[in-house]
Specification:
Blueprint lengths: L1 H10 L1 H21 L12 E7 L5 H16 L5 E9 L2 E8 L5 H15 L10 E2 L8 E8 L5 H16 L5 E7 L4 E7 L1 H6 L4 H10 L4 E8 L2 E7 L6 H5 L2 E5 L2 E4 H4 E7 L16 E6 L5 H16 L7 E7 H31 L2 H24 L6 H41 L1
Antiparallel strand pairs: 1-3, 1-4, 2-3, 5-13, 5-14, 6-13, 7-12, 8-9, 10-11
Helix pairs in contact: 2-12, 3-4, 10-11, 11-12, 11-13, 12-13
């Protein structure tokens, strides 16, 4: 069989060269299309459902949120397992699908079932899907270098400007903010004054919600002109909040400032983010979308950050805390260097021991084609170019070189022996 295959290749050299050229071109195309990452994605095919009910204990969250969600999400097809986790004020449900299931098909099925399961949850609880990323999707971390701004102002800048800008980058699933304080108006209510003015805490909450709103009216026509009537009622400062009326006492309005102290503070924090022991910082984590090219996403994020930086306040700059593209570029440079070193070494070895440059050319041709075919297979099976796969290719190069040298040397020996026999016959 091997003899016939070799004979067929020798009789059809042009076709063999054409096929080799096509495979090399296909391999180059696969290299450009294959996703490049540093870490192989070994995470499970999962969809995360998140629900928030602040102020409730883990047991209440488990009984009234996590258990109803897990019970109603079990009927989704092609599910391997469902895991639920309850903590203070938050519930997480992890739906693990079979490996061959498309992640966006799975998210659609989960979203359909959530519309039915939501009616079993307490009022005001809206479960949402997590980002369409994986466990290794955190490809880029950055912090803000802003010495003249406090942590609350930095967090506001991150949440309301930088985050929205970076989320527009193709391939980015989410930009998660960390560090600093989330600004909020805080009402410190005096229970003695509530009892004196006969006002309940629920009245305070409802009145504050109702008075922080814009309302629309109808058109008002006058002198062939139409005017749109609006009621502007959004709170703009602490004084507006203090002036909200929540009831009356003997015909006198009772305002928020009469029963509570209003202050501007930060939301409850469960941790802090410290950078190199130099103090707290504010920043964000860029989460890559499922199946995207990490190197391209990071490059696009860096380009977008340069545009965003021009709109930041004076003295505010980005500082890179983690950049996976450095590891990716080093892995690619490693396999390139290995390939070049092998080509040079093999050429020298073949030329020195065989004194035949055409034998060296044969090996130099087969190496790039073998590497190109490897990337074709990676692309066909949906495997990214990462440290593991590139290391495997680098190790396989040595085997290909050994096989090439043995085959070329063996062919050269047989051809030499045949040439010697032919010469002897001619001399005789």
């Amino acid at each position: 069989m091997v003899h016939k295959l070799i004979e067929l290749a020798l009789r059809n050299r042009f076709i063999v060269l054409l096929i080799s050229g096509c495979l090399f071109a296909w391999g180059i195309y696969s290299i450009k299309q294959n996703p490049i990452d540093a870490i192989p994605d070994l995470s499970e095919n999962q969809v995360i459902v998140f629900a928030e009910w602040m102020g409730r204990s883990p047991q209440v969250i488990e009984d009234q949120v996590t258990y109803p969600l897990v019970s109603n999400l079990q009927g989704i097809p092609k599910i391997k397992n469902i895991r639920g986790t309850s903590m203070f004020g938050m519930s997480f449900v992890y739906i693990i699908f079979e490996d061959n299931v498309d992640v966006y098909w799975a998210r659609t099925r989960v979203l359909e079932r959530l519309n039915y399961a939501q009616r079993l949850l307490p009022q005001g609880i809206t479960p949402t899907l997590g980002p369409d990323g994986t466990g290794v999707g955190h490809v880029f971390w950055y912090t803000l270098d802003a010495k003249k701004m406090d942590l609350g102002e930095q967090r506001a800048l991150q949440d309301w400007y930088i985050k929205f800008a970076l989320q527009t980058v193709p391939g980015v699933a989410e930009v998660a903010s960390f560090g600093g304080f989330e600004k909020q108006y805080q009402l410190v209510v005096d229970p003695v004054k509530l009892q004196f003015y006969n006002v309940s805490l629920m009245d305070v909450m409802n009145k504050v919600k109702e008075n922080n709103n814009d309302v629309g009216g109808r058109k008002f026509e006058m002198s062939d002109m139409a005017y749109i009537i609006r009621g502007l009622g959004y709170i703009k400062n602490k004084e507006d909040l203090e002036s909200i009326a929540i009831g009356n006492y003997n015909g006198i309005p009772v305002r928020v400032k009469d029963i509570a102290t209003v202050q501007l503070g930060g939301d409850l924090r469960l941790g802090i983010f410290d950078q190199n022991g130099e103090g707290e910082v504010v920043g964000g984590i860029v989460v890559m979308r499922y199946g995207e090219n990490a190197d391209k996403v990071i490059t696009a994020v860096k380009k977008k950050m340069k545009d965003v930086e021009m709109g930041l306040p004076d003295g505010v700059k980005f500082h890179t805390a983690y950049d996976r593209s450095i590891l990716i570029e080093e892995a690619i440079a490693s396999i390139k260097g290995t390939l070049i070193e092998v080509l040079i070494t093999v050429s020298i070895v073949v030329i020195i021991f065989l004194f035949h440059w055409r034998s060296a050319v044969i090996i130099l041709i087969q190496l790039p084609i073998s590497v190109a075919v490897s990337f074709i297979l990676l692309q066909m099976f949906g495997i990214s170019s990462n440290i593991m796969s590139l290391t495997g290719i680098a190790l396989a190069i040595g085997i290909v070189v050994d096989d090439g040298i043995v085959m070329v040397e063996n062919s050269y020996r047989y051809l030499s022996e045949a040439q010697i026999e032919k010469t002897k016959k001619l001399n005789n």
